[in-house]
Amino acid sequence: MDPVAILLILLAAYLALGLLFAIAFSLVGAARIDPVARHAPIGFRLVILPGAAALWPLLLRRWLAARRNTSPDKDPRH
What we know:
Blueprint: H1 3-33, H2 42-54, H3 56-69
Helix pairs in contact: 1-2, 1-3
């Protein structure tokens, strides 16, 4: 297989995963990372879609870290 074809397939897979992630992130994840985004209008969620799709590995790490920090077993009140 041609190296350019392999590169294009990998790029397409990255962008497809990014698009799926961006939709989930704009609906749920942004509010987990940034409490101000919890009350953001739909326009904000649409604006962050391209950036979330492009930077999905970094945002996924932040989302998972925020999820670990807010889990019930790590409640700072106990």
